[in-house]
Protein backbone atom coordinates (compact mmCIF):
# COMPACT_ATOMS: atom_id res chain seq x y z
CA UNK A 1 0.00 0.00 0.00
CA UNK A 2 1.33 3.41 -0.93
CA UNK A 3 0.44 6.42 1.22
CA UNK A 4 1.17 9.82 -0.30
CA UNK A 5 1.61 13.05 1.63
CA UNK A 6 0.72 15.78 -0.88
CA UNK A 7 1.22 19.16 0.74
CA UNK A 8 1.76 22.36 -1.15
CA UNK A 9 2.40 23.91 2.30
CA UNK A 10 4.64 21.31 3.96
CA UNK A 11 4.28 19.95 7.48
CA UNK A 12 7.18 20.51 9.90
CA UNK A 13 9.83 17.80 9.40
CA UNK A 14 9.13 16.36 12.86
CA UNK A 15 5.51 15.76 11.78
CA UNK A 16 6.56 14.05 8.53
CA UNK A 17 8.89 11.82 10.58
CA UNK A 18 5.99 10.93 12.89
CA UNK A 19 3.69 10.15 9.96
CA UNK A 20 6.40 7.97 8.37
CA UNK A 21 6.75 6.02 11.61
CA UNK A 22 3.00 5.26 11.73
CA UNK A 23 2.83 4.31 8.05
CA UNK A 24 5.93 2.11 8.05
CA UNK A 25 4.96 0.40 11.34
CA UNK A 26 1.77 -0.68 9.55
CA UNK A 27 3.86 -2.17 6.74
CA UNK A 28 2.92 0.54 4.20
CA UNK A 29 5.16 2.79 2.09
CA UNK A 30 5.27 6.56 2.33
CA UNK A 31 5.77 8.96 -0.59
CA UNK A 32 6.18 12.70 -0.24
CA UNK A 33 5.17 15.50 -2.60
CA UNK A 34 5.80 18.91 -1.06
CA UNK A 35 5.78 22.51 -2.34
CA UNK A 36 4.57 21.43 -5.76
CA UNK A 37 3.96 24.27 -8.18
CA UNK A 38 2.05 22.57 -11.01
CA UNK A 39 -1.13 20.50 -10.79
CA UNK A 40 0.51 17.97 -13.11
CA UNK A 41 2.99 17.09 -10.34
CA UNK A 42 0.03 16.18 -8.11
CA UNK A 43 -1.67 14.24 -10.92
CA UNK A 44 1.54 12.26 -11.49
CA UNK A 45 2.12 11.61 -7.79
CA UNK A 46 -1.39 10.27 -7.08
CA UNK A 47 -1.22 7.75 -9.94
CA UNK A 48 -0.33 4.74 -7.76
CA UNK A 49 -1.37 6.06 -4.34
CA UNK A 50 -3.83 4.07 -2.24
CA UNK A 51 -4.21 6.85 0.31
CA UNK A 52 -3.43 10.57 0.35
CA UNK A 53 -2.82 12.95 3.23
CA UNK A 54 -3.48 16.58 2.26
CA UNK A 55 -3.92 20.02 3.80
CA UNK A 56 -5.60 22.77 1.75
CA UNK A 57 -4.50 20.97 -1.42
CA UNK A 58 -7.21 20.80 -4.10
CA UNK A 59 -8.51 17.30 -4.68
CA UNK A 60 -10.93 17.76 -7.57
CA UNK A 61 -12.54 15.26 -9.96
CA UNK A 62 -9.44 15.30 -12.20
CA UNK A 63 -7.13 14.33 -9.32
CA UNK A 64 -9.52 11.61 -8.20
CA UNK A 65 -9.74 10.25 -11.76
CA UNK A 66 -5.93 10.19 -11.97
CA UNK A 67 -5.70 8.25 -8.70
CA UNK A 68 -6.82 4.88 -10.01
CA UNK A 69 -5.96 2.94 -6.84
CA UNK A 70 -7.19 5.50 -4.36
CA UNK A 71 -9.21 4.31 -1.36
CA UNK A 72 -9.00 7.20 1.07
CA UNK A 73 -8.10 10.90 1.28
CA UNK A 74 -7.52 12.43 4.71
CA UNK A 75 -7.51 16.18 5.03
CA UNK A 76 -5.09 16.75 7.94
CA UNK A 77 -7.13 19.59 9.36
CA UNK A 78 -10.71 20.73 9.72
CA UNK A 79 -12.14 22.26 6.53
CA UNK A 80 -12.66 19.94 3.57
CA UNK A 81 -14.07 22.44 1.07
CA UNK A 82 -10.95 21.71 -1.02
CA UNK A 83 -12.09 18.15 -1.76
CA UNK A 84 -14.72 17.28 -4.36
CA UNK A 85 -16.80 15.01 -2.14
CA UNK A 86 -19.21 14.01 -4.89
CA UNK A 87 -16.40 12.91 -7.20
CA UNK A 88 -14.82 10.98 -4.31
CA UNK A 89 -18.07 9.24 -3.43
CA UNK A 90 -18.71 8.37 -7.09
CA UNK A 91 -15.23 6.81 -7.29
CA UNK A 92 -15.75 4.87 -4.04
CA UNK A 93 -13.13 6.96 -2.20
CA UNK A 94 -13.54 7.68 1.50
CA UNK A 95 -12.79 11.26 2.61
CA UNK A 96 -12.01 12.13 6.23
CA UNK A 97 -10.78 15.14 8.19
CA UNK A 98 -9.03 15.30 11.56
CA UNK A 99 -11.31 17.61 13.55
CA UNK A 100 -9.83 19.55 16.44
CA UNK A 101 -6.22 18.56 15.83
CA UNK A 102 -5.04 21.99 14.70
CA UNK A 103 -7.67 24.06 16.53
CA UNK A 104 -5.45 25.48 19.27
CA UNK A 105 -2.90 26.72 16.73
CA UNK A 106 -5.58 28.59 14.79
CA UNK A 107 -7.10 30.00 17.98
CA UNK A 108 -3.73 31.32 19.16
CA UNK A 109 -3.24 33.12 15.84
CA UNK A 110 -6.60 34.86 16.34
CA UNK A 111 -5.05 36.66 19.30
CA UNK A 112 -1.81 37.30 17.42
CA UNK A 113 -3.82 39.17 14.81
CA UNK A 114 -6.11 40.79 17.36
CA UNK A 115 -3.44 42.34 19.58
CA UNK A 116 -1.70 43.64 16.45
CA UNK A 117 -5.00 45.27 15.39
CA UNK A 118 -5.98 46.90 18.68
CA UNK A 119 -2.43 48.22 19.21
CA UNK A 120 -2.65 49.98 15.85
CA UNK A 121 -0.22 47.72 13.99
CA UNK A 122 2.48 48.68 16.53
CA UNK A 123 2.76 52.17 15.04
CA UNK A 124 3.43 53.78 18.40
CA UNK A 125 0.02 55.45 18.89
CA UNK A 126 -2.32 54.64 21.80
CA UNK A 127 -4.36 51.55 21.09
CA UNK A 128 -6.98 49.75 23.14
CA UNK A 129 -7.02 46.73 25.43
CA UNK A 130 -8.92 43.49 25.04
CA UNK A 131 -9.96 43.34 28.70
CA UNK A 132 -13.67 44.06 29.04
CA UNK A 133 -14.31 44.04 25.29
CA UNK A 134 -17.14 42.00 23.83
CA UNK A 135 -15.90 39.15 21.64
CA UNK A 136 -18.38 37.54 19.25
CA UNK A 137 -17.40 34.02 18.25
CA UNK A 138 -19.08 33.29 14.93
CA UNK A 139 -19.48 29.49 14.98
CA UNK A 140 -18.65 27.53 18.08
CA UNK A 141 -16.71 24.50 16.85
CA UNK A 142 -13.26 23.32 17.88
CA UNK A 143 -11.52 26.60 17.01
CA UNK A 144 -14.30 28.73 18.50
CA UNK A 145 -14.04 26.83 21.79
CA UNK A 146 -10.29 27.37 21.97
CA UNK A 147 -10.78 31.05 21.17
CA UNK A 148 -13.22 31.28 24.11
CA UNK A 149 -10.74 29.59 26.45
CA UNK A 150 -7.93 31.99 25.54
CA UNK A 151 -10.20 35.07 25.52
CA UNK A 152 -11.09 34.42 29.17
CA UNK A 153 -7.44 34.98 30.04
CA UNK A 154 -7.67 38.42 28.44
CA UNK A 155 -10.77 39.19 30.54
CA UNK A 156 -13.08 39.55 27.54
CA UNK A 157 -16.85 39.24 27.61
CA UNK A 158 -17.84 36.30 25.43
CA UNK A 159 -20.74 35.72 23.05
CA UNK A 160 -21.23 33.05 20.40
CA UNK A 161 -23.58 32.15 17.62
CA UNK A 162 -23.68 28.69 16.09
CA UNK A 163 -26.53 27.33 14.00
CA UNK A 164 -25.59 23.74 14.86
CA UNK A 165 -24.40 23.90 18.48
CA UNK A 166 -26.90 24.00 21.35
CA UNK A 167 -27.16 27.02 23.64
CA UNK A 168 -26.53 24.66 26.57
CA UNK A 169 -23.13 23.61 25.20
CA UNK A 170 -22.11 27.22 24.60
CA UNK A 171 -23.35 28.35 28.01
CA UNK A 172 -21.49 25.47 29.70
CA UNK A 173 -18.26 27.27 28.70
CA UNK A 174 -19.48 30.50 30.33
CA UNK A 175 -20.07 32.00 26.90
CA UNK A 176 -23.38 33.76 26.23
CA UNK A 177 -25.24 32.18 23.30
CA UNK A 178 -27.04 34.64 21.03
CA UNK A 179 -29.95 33.71 18.82
CA UNK A 180 -28.91 35.18 15.47
CA UNK A 181 -25.90 36.25 13.43
CA UNK A 182 -27.31 39.79 13.34
CA UNK A 183 -27.48 39.96 17.12
CA UNK A 184 -23.87 38.76 17.38
CA UNK A 185 -22.66 41.55 15.09
CA UNK A 186 -24.79 44.18 16.85
CA UNK A 187 -23.22 43.51 20.25
CA UNK A 188 -19.61 42.53 19.47
CA UNK A 189 -16.63 44.89 19.58
CA UNK A 190 -14.65 42.12 17.92
CA UNK A 191 -15.92 39.23 15.79
CA UNK A 192 -13.84 36.12 15.19
CA UNK A 193 -14.98 34.04 12.20
CA UNK A 194 -15.02 30.24 12.40
CA UNK A 195 -17.67 29.29 9.86
CA UNK A 196 -16.86 26.76 7.14
CA UNK A 197 -17.11 27.68 3.45
CA UNK A 198 -20.39 26.16 2.27
CA UNK A 199 -22.93 27.28 -0.35
CA UNK A 200 -24.88 28.89 2.53
CA UNK A 201 -21.96 30.82 4.04
CA UNK A 202 -20.21 31.95 0.86
CA UNK A 203 -20.03 35.78 0.71
CA UNK A 204 -22.29 35.89 3.77
CA UNK A 205 -20.06 38.41 5.55
CA UNK A 206 -21.37 41.33 3.55
CA UNK A 207 -21.87 45.05 3.94
CA UNK A 208 -25.33 44.71 5.46
CA UNK A 209 -24.01 42.46 8.24
CA UNK A 210 -20.80 44.42 8.85
CA UNK A 211 -22.83 47.64 9.13
CA UNK A 212 -24.34 46.30 12.35
CA UNK A 213 -20.95 46.32 14.12
CA UNK A 214 -20.36 49.08 16.70
CA UNK A 215 -17.82 51.85 16.17
CA UNK A 216 -14.18 50.75 16.35
CA UNK A 217 -15.00 47.10 15.64
CA UNK A 218 -12.48 44.51 14.45
CA UNK A 219 -13.18 41.45 12.30
CA UNK A 220 -10.72 38.55 12.49
CA UNK A 221 -10.88 35.89 9.78
CA UNK A 222 -9.01 32.67 10.35
CA UNK A 223 -11.73 30.69 8.55
CA UNK A 224 -12.00 30.97 4.75
CA UNK A 225 -11.75 33.80 2.21
CA UNK A 226 -14.89 32.57 0.45
CA UNK A 227 -17.16 33.56 3.36
CA UNK A 228 -16.28 37.24 2.88
CA UNK A 229 -17.98 39.39 0.25
CA UNK A 230 -14.70 40.94 -0.88
CA UNK A 231 -16.10 43.83 -2.94
CA UNK A 232 -18.47 44.80 -0.13
CA UNK A 233 -15.94 44.65 2.70
CA UNK A 234 -13.73 47.03 0.73
CA UNK A 235 -16.66 49.37 0.12
CA UNK A 236 -17.70 49.15 3.77
CA UNK A 237 -14.20 49.87 5.05
CA UNK A 238 -13.85 52.93 2.86
CA UNK A 239 -16.98 54.35 4.51
CA UNK A 240 -16.36 53.05 8.03
CA UNK A 241 -12.84 54.30 8.70
CA UNK A 242 -13.08 53.11 12.33
CA UNK A 243 -13.22 49.43 11.32
CA UNK A 244 -10.30 47.01 11.04
CA UNK A 245 -10.07 43.70 9.18
CA UNK A 246 -7.39 41.11 9.93
CA UNK A 247 -7.24 37.93 7.92
CA UNK A 248 -5.18 34.78 7.68
CA UNK A 249 -6.49 34.07 4.19
CA UNK A 250 -5.24 36.37 1.45
CA UNK A 251 -8.24 38.06 -0.21
CA UNK A 252 -8.62 38.06 -3.98
CA UNK A 253 -8.47 41.88 -3.86
CA UNK A 254 -5.49 42.05 -1.47
CA UNK A 255 -3.49 44.64 -3.44
CA UNK A 256 -6.43 47.04 -3.53
CA UNK A 257 -7.27 46.44 0.14
CA UNK A 258 -3.69 47.11 1.13
CA UNK A 259 -3.44 50.27 -0.91
CA UNK A 260 -6.76 51.77 0.18
CA UNK A 261 -6.94 50.64 3.82
CA UNK A 262 -3.47 51.26 5.18
CA UNK A 263 -3.25 50.72 8.93
CA UNK A 264 -6.67 49.03 9.14
CA UNK A 265 -6.19 45.91 7.06
CA UNK A 266 -3.71 43.07 7.37
CA UNK A 267 -3.40 39.67 5.72
CA UNK A 268 -0.83 36.96 6.25
CA UNK A 269 0.78 36.10 2.89
CA UNK A 270 -0.16 32.42 3.17
CA UNK A 271 -2.65 30.86 5.59
CA UNK A 272 -0.61 30.05 8.68
CA UNK A 273 -3.14 29.51 11.47
CA UNK A 274 -2.44 25.78 11.57
CA UNK A 275 1.22 26.17 10.72
CA UNK A 276 2.84 25.10 14.00
CA UNK A 277 4.92 22.02 14.71
CA UNK A 278 2.35 20.92 17.29
CA UNK A 279 -0.62 21.25 14.92
CA UNK A 280 1.32 19.53 12.12
CA UNK A 281 2.17 16.64 14.43
CA UNK A 282 -1.36 16.34 15.85
CA UNK A 283 -3.17 16.55 12.49
CA UNK A 284 -0.56 14.65 10.46
CA UNK A 285 -0.26 11.71 12.83
CA UNK A 286 -4.04 11.56 13.32
CA UNK A 287 -4.38 11.40 9.52
CA UNK A 288 -1.82 8.57 9.32
CA UNK A 289 -3.53 6.63 12.10
CA UNK A 290 -6.96 7.09 10.52
CA UNK A 291 -5.61 5.78 7.20
CA UNK A 292 -4.04 2.72 8.83
CA UNK A 293 -7.20 1.99 10.79
CA UNK A 294 -9.32 2.40 7.66
CA UNK A 295 -7.14 0.23 5.41
CA UNK A 296 -6.61 -2.49 8.02
CA UNK A 297 -9.90 -2.48 9.95
CA UNK A 298 -12.36 -0.53 7.81
CA UNK A 299 -12.84 2.10 10.53
CA UNK A 300 -14.72 5.00 8.95
CA UNK A 301 -14.92 7.35 11.93
CA UNK A 302 -14.38 10.95 10.75
CA UNK A 303 -15.66 10.12 7.26
CA UNK A 304 -17.18 13.29 5.75
CA UNK A 305 -18.56 12.03 2.42
CA UNK A 306 -21.53 9.71 2.00
C1 LIG B 1 -8.12 23.79 8.44
O1 LIG B 1 -9.18 23.79 7.80
O2 LIG B 1 -7.76 22.80 9.10
C2 LIG B 1 -7.28 25.04 8.49
O3 LIG B 1 -7.79 26.02 7.63
C3 LIG B 1 -5.81 24.80 8.24
O4 LIG B 1 -5.48 24.63 6.89
P1 LIG B 1 -4.00 24.24 6.41
O5 LIG B 1 -3.75 22.82 6.79
O6 LIG B 1 -3.98 24.48 4.95
O7 LIG B 1 -3.02 25.15 7.13
Strand content: 15-25%
Look up the CATH topology of the largest domain: Rossmann fold
Helical stretch count? 12
Helix percentage range: 25-40%
What is the number of beta strands? Answer: 12
User: Could you tell me which ligands this complex binds, including any ions or cofactors?
Assistant: 3-phosphoglyceric acid
Give the class-level CATH name of the largest domain: Alpha Beta
CATH homologous superfamily title of the largest domain: NAD(P)-binding Rossmann-like Domain
CATH architecture of the largest domain: 3-Layer(aba) Sandwich
Global mean pLDDT: 98
The separation of the N and C termini measures 24 Å
Give me the Rg, rounded.
20 Å
Give your account of this protein's structure.
The protein has about 300 residues and is α/β, with parallel strands linked by helices. The chain folds into two domains: about 120 residues, NAD(P)-binding Rossmann-like Domain (Rossmann fold); about 160 residues, NAD(P)-binding Rossmann-like Domain (Rossmann fold, 3-Layer(aba) Sandwich). It contains twelve helices and twelve strands. Strands 8-7-6-9-10-11-12 form a seven-stranded parallel β-sheet, with helices on both faces. It has a five-stranded parallel β-sheet with strand order 2-1-3-4-5, sandwiched between helices. Strand 9, helix 9 and strand 10 form a beta-alpha-beta unit. It is elongated and about 60 Å long. Bound molecules: 3-phosphoglyceric acid (3PG). The site of 3-phosphoglyceric acid has 11 residues, from loops. The site of 3-phosphoglyceric acid (3PG) has 11 residues, from loops.
Amino acid sequence: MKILIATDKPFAKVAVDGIRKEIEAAGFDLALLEKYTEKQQLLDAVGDANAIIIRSDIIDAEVIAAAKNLKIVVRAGAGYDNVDLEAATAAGVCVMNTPGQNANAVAELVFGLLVYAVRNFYNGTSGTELKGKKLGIHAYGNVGRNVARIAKGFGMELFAYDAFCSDELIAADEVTPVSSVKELYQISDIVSLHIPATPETKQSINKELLSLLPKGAVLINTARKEVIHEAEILEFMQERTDFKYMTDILPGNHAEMQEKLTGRYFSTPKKMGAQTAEANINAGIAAAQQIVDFLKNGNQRFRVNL
